[in-house]
Amino acid sequence: MEGREFKENKMGVMPVNKLIINIGLPMILSMLVQAFYNIVDSIFVARINDASASGSAGTAALVAVGMAFPFQTLLIAFGSGTGVGVNAMLSKALGEKDHETVKKAANNGIFVSAVCAALFFIIGRFFAGALIRSQGGEGLTLQYGTQYLSIVCMFSFGIYMQFIFERLLQATGRTLYSMITQMTGAIINIILDPILIFGLLGFPEMKVAGAAVATVTGQIVAACFALILNLKKNPEVKISFKGFKPDMHTIGRIYKVGVPSIIMMCIGSVMTYCMNKILVTLHEAAVAVFTVYFKLQSLFFMPLFGLNNGLIPILAYNYGAKKRSRMVKAIKVAMAYAFGFAALGFLLFEVIPDKLLLIFNTGDSSLLTLGVPALRIIGFHYLLAWFCIVGGTVFQSLGNGVYSLIVSIARQLVVLIPAAYILAKIGGLPLIWWCFPIAELMSFAVNCFFMYRINKEIISKVPDNV
Predict the structure, then answer these.
(1) Is residue 466 part of a domain?
(2) How many domains in the chain?
(3) pLDDT tens for residues 96-129?
């Protein structure tokens, strides 16, 4: 019976366009919910009032969340990268009908996720304040940022377990269950946000700390739900720690694919950290604008990442099953959908940037004054980003994550940060935002070159056992 389940896995037989929608749509919807609750989080935070504040408490809260963001990204990087490695390894093993490797990938993935959670507990407990202060955070911004970052890190076991258990569901094509768990966590977060931030229904007013508590509570509930679904509804993956010992060979295979993804997100963390340090010297509200940009961007990029998360097991499975035409078709379909998401982002950033910024009403007019030209300039990078994001997913799925790593380093560290520094010196805030389109142009060129190589060296040589 188990062999029959492997043989009939829909990733190897369902029409590709239908398969992309079947696997990708639930993940896109769940990512949209994730993006929505991230935005709702900041909408509530922006409306915080503090009688003791000398300026806008809402702006200080947004800046605090923005300064916590690089380290929150770092935390997510290890969970997401581990999940990418487990997903690719497990999906390929499913395509090859290698049951033992499937079990090892799952159990060792859970183990290393737990280790990561323990490390970030230490960071949150002892270093949160110093990390916010290192970006220029002081006063109310330092207080809010320290509270937020310490809670998110110390309770990171929730998001780490959520990541790994959802990836096990995704690897076998059960993305509907993955969507349900993500949406459950997001809905809990959205409900708890105003209650804990403003002290409703008898709860104490926790301000920014309330947003952090709402976030980790949603993650813990989602993780528990995802575990239950794996045990009850995912027979192809056996989770058992009876007699378990960490297998370094399996962990090595997971991180052969996962490390480039982790490093890429860590590079994003470094980029955000550096941008915060540059922007805070020009105007504190510029950090709030940068934070709002990231929140708005998630509306268009999170669904794209959901699409890519669905593409990874499809490519990995059909690579293992040696079905070249299905791989090529999946890449083309994914790129078409990705362009649609990016084009929508570009249009909204260009046409109604003021309406988007007014969603985050801090009562500080500088957010709108500085933000409108910033969003219009940054919006141009959407025209190229869709191709770069799908290209990176293709590289990772086929075991060439180093290509994605090279592109990410070149874009964010070699080009974006130096460009931001130079433009800030030359023209201040009006010019600094052009660093994003400039970096994306370089990324597009390098991605085109690597896509040509991956097609020539790998895809074109895969047999077509349709």
Answers:
(1) no
(2) 1
(3) 777 777 778 888 888 999 999 999 999 999 999 9
